[in-house]
Design goal:
Elements (H helix, E strand, L loop, with lengths): L2 H13 L7 H11 L3 E2 L14 H4 L2 E7 L2 E7 L5 E4 L5 E4 L4 E5 L2 E8 L1 E5 L8 E5 L2 E5 L3 E5 L5 E7 L1 E5 L6 E5 L3 E4 L7 E2 L9 H4 L1 E8 H12 L3 E3 L5 E7 L3 H12 L3 E3 L1
Parallel strand pairs: 7-9
Antiparallel strand pairs: 1-4, 2-3, 3-6, 4-5, 5-8, 6-7, 8-11, 9-10, 10-13, 11-12, 12-15, 13-14, 15-16, 17-19, 18-20
Length: 264
Amino acid sequence: MSDFEDKHMDFVLKHYQEGKFDTWKAVKRFNEAHGIVQKPRRRVLPWVSGIVAAAAIVLGVILFRDNEQQIQLMASTGMQEFVLPDGSEVTLSPGSRLTYGEKSPRKTCLEGKAFFEVARDEAVPFEITADGAFVRVLGTKFMVDAGSSVKEVYVTEGKVLFAKSSDSEGVILTKEMQATLSQSDAVPVIAEEPDVNSIAWQRGSFIFDRTPLREVLETLSRHYKVSFVATDLDKQLNGEFYAEDLDLIISLIESALDVHIVKR
């Protein structure tokens, strides 16, 4: 039996109680009843891989608000993908959640960070409300990070309206545009140099194009929550690096640039 299977069995034995309902079947029935399709997992970051399936799954929860059932999707410790009832796809980062009304699946509320691939419907825009941020689209691909005081939107395809609220002034973002919105901003600020690696968590890789080593290490530091000390920080790096193994990335960078990097 593999290490993964051992952990999975330990989890099942630890949480099994005779006479209790089967949570796996309950979640499956809930998803089927509400048109939620759980997608297969794609490549994930190292702090996601190896997690017991039962702990990484996203659960559907029924809430009630204004006499309408509210469907809540939650990612616990692992990144998870879902297909919403309208055909839109959403990838939730660990610790994030998305809520929508059963009768209005294209009006959503986000806590945390998510990547959206919105099914086009010109008659019914897709809306995302977060704490102090609002996004409206017809159909496109983009990331919304509402997990901190500074909200961020990065667009990979299509057109997105980003504003503080549904009735305030906003900005239009198109392919490879990025904007941030702080609590003191009345209107989102468009980035002069969009950071393609802001969606590395969803894409599964880092992309560098003549990027100084100093900036490379700052990017890796943000994603892996570690710090680095290195020589020759002005040397520039080109290439795409898969995000599964930080030690391998560091080794490749050291070899490519002939530098020494210490992880702390």
